[in-house]
C-alpha cells in the first residue's frame, strides 16, 4: 500500500481516482489544485503523486516543477493525467519531471497497472 496524492481540479475525477486507488489498497488524499497539492506535499509525505495537466493557479507541469524542488520529492513517481495528446505538451510534462503520462479517459485497470509499475 502506498500513500498517493491526487491533484485535479475536477471533483468527479478526484472522487473516481480516489475510489479506484483505494479499492486497489492505496491510501489516497486529494488536492483541488496545484497550490493545495504543494501545501499537502509539504505537510505530509506521499509515495506517489497523480496530477492533472490543465488546472487553475498552477498547471500540472508548474506543480511538478515546484514539487521536484522539495528534497523529499526529487525521486517520487509523478503521473500526469490529461486529455492533452500534443507532443509539445508531453515534452513539457517530461521536462517538468513527470515520471509518466496517462491520457484521459483511461481504463481503471490501466491506471492501476501504471501506478503499480511506477511504485515498483
Write a brief caption for the model.
With 120 residues, the chain is α/β, with parallel strands linked by helices.
Strands, helices and their partners?
Layout: E1 3-7, H1 11-23, E2 27-31, H2 34-43, E3 48-52, H3 60-69, E4 78-82, H4 87-96, E5 100-103, H5 108-119
Parallel strand pairs: 1-2, 1-3, 3-4, 4-5
Helix pairs in contact: 2-3, 3-4
Polypeptide structure, described:
- This protein has about 120 residues and is of the alpha/beta class.
- It has one domain (about 5-120): 3-Layer(aba) Sandwich (Rossmann fold).
- Helix content is about 45%, strand content about 20%.
- The protein contains 5 helices and 5 strands.
- It has helices spanning about 10-25, 35-45, 60-70, 85-95, 110-120; strands spanning about 5, 25-30, 50, 80, 100-105.
- It has a 5-stranded parallel beta sheet with strand order 2-1-3-4-5, with helices on both faces.
- Helix 3 (about 60-70) links the parallel strand 3 and strand 4.
- Helix 2 runs parallel beside helix 3 (about 60-70) and helix 3 (about 60-70) runs parallel beside helix 4.
- The longest helix has 13 residues, at about 10-25.
- The model has no long low-confidence stretch (mean pLDDT about 95).
- This is Chemotaxis regulator.
- One of its GO terms (biological process) is phosphorelay signal transduction system.
- Keywords: Phosphoprotein.
- Pfam families: Response_reg (PF00072).
- InterPro entries: Bact_response_regulator, CheY-like_superfamily, Sig_transdc_resp-reg_receiver.
| CATH class type | Alpha Beta
Distance between the termini: 11 Å
DSSP, total strands: 5
Corresponding CATH superfamily: Response regulator
CATH topology: Rossmann fold
DSSP strand content: 15-25%
Q: Helix fraction?
A: 40-55%
Strand order, main sheet: write it out: 2-1-3-4-5
Name of the CATH architecture: 3-Layer(aba) Sandwich
The low-pLDDT segments are: none
Derived structural class: alpha/beta
Shape: globular
Number of structural units classed as domains: 1
Radius of gyration: 13 Å
Number of helices: 5
Pfam families: Response_reg (PF00072)
Organism: Methylophaga nitratireducenticrescens
Keywords: Phosphoprotein
Protein name: Chemotaxis regulator
Amino acid at each position: 500500500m502506498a500513500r498517493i496524492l491526487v491533484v485535479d481540479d475536477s471533483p468527479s475525477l478526484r472522487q473516481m481516482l480516489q475510489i479506484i486507488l483505494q479499492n486497489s489498497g492505496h491510501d489516497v488524499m486529494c488536492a483541488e489544485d496545484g497550490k493545495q497539492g504543494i501545501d499537502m506535499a509539504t505537510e505530509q509525505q506521499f509515495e506517489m503523486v497523480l496530477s492533472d495537466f490543465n488546472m487553475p493557479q498552477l498547471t500540472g507541469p508548474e506543480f511538478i516543477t515546484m514539487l521536484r524542488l522539495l528534497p523529499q520529492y526529487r525521486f517520487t513517481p509523478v503521473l500526469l493525467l490529461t486529455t492533452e495528446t500534443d507532443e509539445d505538451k508531453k515534452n513539457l510534462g517530461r521536462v517538468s519531471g513527470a515520471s509518466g503520462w496517462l491520457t484521459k479517459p483511461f481504463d481503471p485497470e490501466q491506471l492501476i497497472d501504471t501506478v503499480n509499475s511506477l511504485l515498483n
